[in-house]
Amino acid sequence: MNEAQRVSAARVVLRGLSGQHFGRTYTLTEPRLLGRAGSADIRLDDVAVAERHAMVELHNDRVVLRALGNDSSLLNGVPVRDAVLSPGDQVSIDQHRFVLEAPGLPNRGQSGAQKPQVTTHTQTLKAVRVPVAADPAPAPQHEPRSPRNSRDPVGLLYLIAAATVLAAALTYLLYAPRIGG
Question: Which of 14, 148, 65, 19 is nearest to 53 (CA)?
Answer without folding.
Answer: 65
